[in-house]
């Protein structure tokens, strides 16, 4: 009986780490270059919104540079790209515009797989909005 009780938390931890991978790319996410949209004014008390996201790719093949731009309402204070393996806090270039550029060279084998990439925008009150996108590293 103690084996069952000891194994249960371990099994739950394994299942919680395996987030389902979205099967489609949301309509506000695109692949390419350039600014995908213009920021929209958001008051301090308004909920944050992710207006548009543009990545150079969602299938990173090493060695490569992965980059993107996220356009939000102007009240977004922080923007994060998160998976169960890594997290990136994107720098804000101006109100409502966040950009990043990452060089993927040699990564450990456990990073080479498909992910559910969570795009999380937060305002100063801590309110958050999220988009989930399929993403992979080869």
Could you describe the 3D structure shown?
The chain has 138 residues and is mainly beta. It has a single domain, classed as Immunoglobulin-like, CATH 2.60.40.10. It has one helix spanning 2-17; strands spanning 29-31, 50-55, 59-60, 64-72, 76-82, 87-90, 92-94, 97-104, 114-123, 128-137. The protein has a 5-stranded mixed β-sheet with strand order 1-2-4-8-7, with no helix packed on it. Strands 3-10-9-5-6 form a 5-stranded mixed β-sheet, with no helix packed on it. Mean pLDDT is 86; it is low at 1-16.
Average residue pLDDT: 86
* Quaternary structure of the protein: single chain
Distance between the termini: 42 Å
**Helix coverage percent:** 10-25%
The CATH architecture would be Sandwich
CATH superfamily: Immunoglobulins
Summed up, the domain count is 1
Order of helices and strands: HEEEEEEEEEE
- CATH topology annotation: Immunoglobulin-like
Q: What is the 3D form? A: globular
Backbone CA Rg: 17 Å
Walk across the major sheet and give the strand order.
1-2-4-8-7
Please report the first level of CATH classification, the CATH class.
Mainly Beta
Total number of strands: 10
Low-confidence stretches: 1-16
The secondary structure category is mainly beta
Major sheet attributes: 5 strands, mixed
Helix tally equals 1
> Beta-strand level of the residues, as a percent range?
35-45%
């Amino acid at each position: 009986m103690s084996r069952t009780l000891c194994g249960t938390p371990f099994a739950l931890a394994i299942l919680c780490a395996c987030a389902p991978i979205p099967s489609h790319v949301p309509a506000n996410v695109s692949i390419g270059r350039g600014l995908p949209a213009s920021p929209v004014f958001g008051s301090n008390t308004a909920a944050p919104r992710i207006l548009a996201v543009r990545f150079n790719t969602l299938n990173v093949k090493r060695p490569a540079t992965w980059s993107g731009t996220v356009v939000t309402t102007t009240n977004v204070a922080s923007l994060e790209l998160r998976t169960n393996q890594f997290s990136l806090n994107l720098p804000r270039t101006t109100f409502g515009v966040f950009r990043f550029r990452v060089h993927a060279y040699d990564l450990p084998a456990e990073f080479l797989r498909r992910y559910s990439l969570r795009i999380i925008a937060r305002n100063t009150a801590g309110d958050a909005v999220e988009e989930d996108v399929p993403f992979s590293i080869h």
